[in-house]
Design goal:
Length: 259
């Protein structure tokens, strides 16, 4: 049975990934900080949301409170996966923050630090914690590391230069990680979603003073918002053995995003 660790798991795309994996036979360690961040003006996932997710799959999902900014905490979560489930085959980095709403030259270090410490360093920390466990799997192994980037990694977005930069960094990190993993049997990829119906999109709408997140739908060729489960489908495919030809690249699960 395959084992995954998913960060940012309390809600949104992270929670959708946990659900998809659990319903297709995976054992999952679901990780979330379960606390708000004073650097951003909106509430984050809660302990109750994470616990409810795990309770839906009592035999296959373990919930762990840990912050991706804390490498030791992630290493403990990986150790739990190995202890309880026997190893680790996939790691999904879905934890991220949204900040912005003003030109780069008017933004401050707090905003930049929030975006990079969670959305970039947090992914690097997950790789540092998870890859050694995947390498402990015997050859031939089929390990997978999947990081959530964004359509913002590929398009400049108004008043979101810091977010653009952080998500572009995710793509670069994954490309470098995949090169480091050459010949190991472990693939590293990024998924770039478009506008997806999540709490983070609601926070983005507030930055733009939009009354309704549905206004973002006009920027996608599908002419609607994506649902978290649609993006999770792409992520979970990349976690599967069938994705063995895909590494060091980006899958654009963005609904044809065109700002």
């Amino acid at each position: 049975m395959s084992v995954a660790l998913v960060t940012g798991a309390a809600r949104g795309i992270g929670a959708a990934v946990v659900r998809r994996l659990a319903t297709t036979g995976w054992q999952v360690v679901a990780v979330d900080r379960c606390a708000d961040d004073p650097r951003v003006p909106y509430p984050l996932g809660t302990r109750e949301e994470l616990a409810a997710l795990a309770a839906s799959y009592p035999d296959s999902v373990l919930d762990v409170v840990a912050d991706v900014q804390d490498l030791a905490g992630l290493r403990s979560a990986v150790a739990l996966a190995e202890e309880r489930f026997g190893g680790l085959d996939a790691a999904v980095a879905a934890a991220a923050l949204m900040a912005g709403g003003r030109p780069l030259w008017e933004s401050d270090d707090t905003e930049w630090d929030a975006l990079f410490s969670v959305g970039v360093t947090g992914i690097a920390n997950l790789a540092r914690a998870a890859i050694p466990a995947m390498l402990r799997r015997p050859q031939p192994r089929q390990g997978r590391f999947v990081a959530l980037a964004s359509a913002a990694a590929h398009h400049g977005l108004w008043h979101l230069a810091g977010y653009n930069a952080a998500k572009h960094a995710v793509v670069g990190l994954v490309k470098g990680l995949a090169t480091d993993l050459r010949g190991t049997g472990i693939c590293a990829t990024a998924v770039s979603p478009g506008s997806t119906r999540t709490d983070m999109l609601t926070a983005t709408a507030r930055l733009y003073d939009l009354g309704d997140v549905e206004e973002f739908a006009s920027h996608q060729l599908v002419e609607r918002l994506l649902e978290p489960d649609e993006v999770a489908a792409a992520v979970c495919f990349l976690c599967s053995p069938e994705s063995s030809a895909i590494t060091g690249t980006v899958v654009h699960a963005d609904g044809g995003f065109a700002p």
